Amino acid sequence: MAEASVTLQISTLPEAPGVYQYYDKDGKLLYVGKAINLKKRVKSYFTKQHDNARTRLLVKRIKNIKHIVVETETDALLLENNLIKKYQPKYNVMLKDDKSYPWICIKNERFPRVFPTRRFIKDGSEYYGPYTSMKTVHTLLDLIKGLYPLRTCNYDLAEEKIKGGKYKVCLEYHLGNCLGPCEGKYTESVYNENIEAIRNIIKGNFKDSLTGFKKQMKQFAQDLQFEDAQRIKEKIDVLENYQSKSTVVNPKINNVDVFSIISDESYGYVNFLQVSFGAIIRSHTLEIKKKLDESDKELLQLAVIELRQRFNSQSKEIYVPFPISAEEGVKVHVPKVGDKKHILDLSTRNAKYYRMERFKQAKIVDPDRHTNRIMAQMKKDLRLSEEPRHIECFDNSNIQGSHPVAACVVFKNGKPSKKDYRKFNIKTVEGPDDFASMEEVVYRRYKRLKEEEQPLPQLIIIDGGKGQLSSALKSLDKLELRGEIAIVGIAKRLEELFYPDDPIPLYLDKKSETLKIIQQLRNEAHRFGITFHRDKRSKDALNTALETIPGIGEKTVIELLKQFKSTKRIKEASFDELANVIGTSRAKKIITHFQK
To answer: How far is residue 290's CA from residue 267's CA, in Å, rounded to a whole number?
Structure first.
């Protein structure tokens, strides 16, 4: 329980929305949280049994509690985000990525310039962005410059200076990239119309520009100015091509922010798409490091506020995968079908790809972090009491009882440890009895490890269903190891995981990393066992009458032995019986051989 002073502080907390702050004995801020009911939320930290070790450590260190009451839960969200960013408490989530992003600036001046910048200066200029990549900015500016000739010089084009003939046109004018406003060759009204069209293109609205160009093209064609008409047509083609590439959903979906989240034990990945007139004008994924056991809802709410503030979003509607609280005036929508669901799925896919990229990078740059994350995920998915740093997997191999063998493969920290692999010849079992074979090899393996005082694995995986698992458990019981080592069986057909004394199997997500590692273990055990089995069998079987037949290989022999059990029965089989198993061509070769 909490100390008396903290208990007293909790008892006097209001039952209202607000933000709470935890401090240690030195007055250092440990954690900032939000709550609809401050008293109820803070009290839960000191009365609940926490699974997360970090949370337990946090609670031990709390010596002082402060709070700020606000009007609504949304206000609490905003305040929490600002306090976390300002003080960066040790136990709060960490929002990675604090770099400066590029903007497109329409300069506040006569005959405005349009250019990229990373500096946001409050001088009355218009800034669009920020964009998550300079490549996107350059692509957009290249499109704009191809459609509308703009000046690039930084002259002060005041009316009196132009009339006074202070400036002369430069090379850009002669190249056709600028229409010469410095000598009054380009009127201010036409220039400003082009700037308005550029604003719309940056926002993702191509409709006005396309309409204007089509109108110009028709007029040039009517006046028989076909070269000018062709030039305008080329601009229309460029704009329509760009629009078709950028438009991903219904153009009626306008001015919407889309957010999705993918998370694991240690990190959350929130993707943000900004949609305007059906076009994605921005995509960004934020990586959030968990400090405690934060839920996806908590992470997403924090990320939505952070991303909307960072990218200065004014959208009044957001799409999210589940309901969250949002600032006043913003409509939250959870799409289920149609174009809106399509764009949310696209956001989720972006988050998944980003996560995969981070994993690949982590493997190279920080392999320990990657391993720790995998181990923590496996512990959670498989409901284990400790991380499975050492896993062993068993598989039997035989063909209808011939040359029965077994294999044990070992993974350490999620990777094969081939020097620890072991092969077993089945010694005590007569005939094809997988259950008895499994019981024998598990007993032999762990009896030896105990006798040699070798470290035991944290997890045993048995390739097979309930029967093989029960056989392995008998051996653990004999060795008094039951309960000391976690053990599961994996059935091939539906990839079901069976636990001791639990009739209901566990089904893992088919894309989960935990299942992939278990499948890798099972496949490696199968490969290792089959290789050993073939090596052993080849010493006896490769010299049989069957394998001396031209055109009959090892796989064919295995198929025949599975079906007919012995060389004698194969010799006595009819052509049709053989053809049903190995096809007419190979059946003919065997019949011809034995007839000779």
So the answer is: 5
Which helix (H) or strand (E) segment holds residue 116: the answer is strand 114-117
Q: Which strands form 256-263's sheet, in the order they lie side by side? A: 94-95, 279-289, 267-276, 256-263, 317-319, 331-333
Cβ-contact 258, 318 below 8 angstroms:
yes
Burial 511-538 (b: 16+ CB within 10 A, else e): eebbbebbebbbebbbebbeebbbebbe
Would you state the pLDDT for residue 586?
Answer: 85
Nearest to 408 by CA among 456, 367, 365, 356: 456
SS3 state of residue 433: coil
Residue given tokens 């006798």 in the structure block: 451
> CA-to-CA distance for 497 and 491, rounded, in angstroms?
7
Amino acid at 44: S
Compute the C-alpha angle 112/114/116, nearest 5°. 145
Tens of pLDDT, residues 403-449: 677 889 999 988 899 899 988 888 877 666 778 888 998 999 999 99
Token pair of 49 as six digits: 């049994």
Give alpha helix (H) positions in 28-93. 38-47, 53-61, 73-87
Give, for 177, the enclosing helix (H) or strand (E). none
Among 110, 32, 72, residue whose Cα is nearest residue 292: 32
pTM score above 0.70: no
Beta bridge partners of 283: 273
Q: What is the pLDDT of residues 464-502, one digit of tens each?
A: 888 889 999 999 999 988 888 999 998 876 788 889 888
> Locate tokens 């089959």: which residue?
530
User: Which one-letter amino acid corresponds to residue 375?
Assistant: M
